[in-house]
Design goal:
151 residues, alpha/beta, Collagenase (Catalytic Domain), 48% helix, globular
């Protein structure tokens, strides 16, 4: 599988190879079947709000959006769109590490591509348990997202 990283956030710096290493590790723990490419885009809030409105008819900010591959596509591409601004707000409010929050959003998007959902209470509990398991796995592997954020 191929991994692509797009950083369109003006204040975030990250290492694409580091992102790809994390995604590769997640693939070993929670395999995504039938995908050729997984892309992760780090976006600002307004871009993600635009996507949220366009595809879900919801004008509110969100932390992560995923776009599964279409069965008719020649190349099966799954996309994870991460709101850097939402991660920054949440991390500041809860005294969390921004890199860890961004990693959680990547994992959350990955799990959506795997078929997890978080709309119902039972599904949300399963999603949270899977998130914790993947994050613990990454920690055991000594993998951490390396970022610089300068505003």
């Amino acid at each position: 599988m191929q991994y692509l990283c797009y950083n369109e956030h003006p204040y975030l710096q990250l290492d694409d190879a580091n992102v790809e290493t994390i995604l590769s590790a997640v693939q070993t723990y929670v395999p995504l079947e039938h995908y050729d490419i997984i892309s992760v885009a780090f976006l600002n809030e307004s871009t993600l709000v635009d996507l949220h409105m366009k595809f879900l008819n919801d004008p509110t900010p969100t932390d992560v959006m995923t776009f599964p591959a279409e069965k008719s596509d020649d190349e099966r591409v799954g996309e994870i769109c991460v709101s850097v601004d939402q991660a920054k707000k949440y991390a500041a409010e809860h005294r969390q590490d921004l890199a860890q929050e961004l990693t959680l959003y990547m994992v959350h998007g990955w799990l959506h591509l795997c078929g997890y959902n978080d709309l119902k209470v039972g599904d949300r509990k399963a999603m949270r348990a899977a998130e914790r398991a993947v994050l613990n796995f990454l920690k055991e592997c000594c993998l951490k997202l390396k970022i610089k954020y300068s505003q």
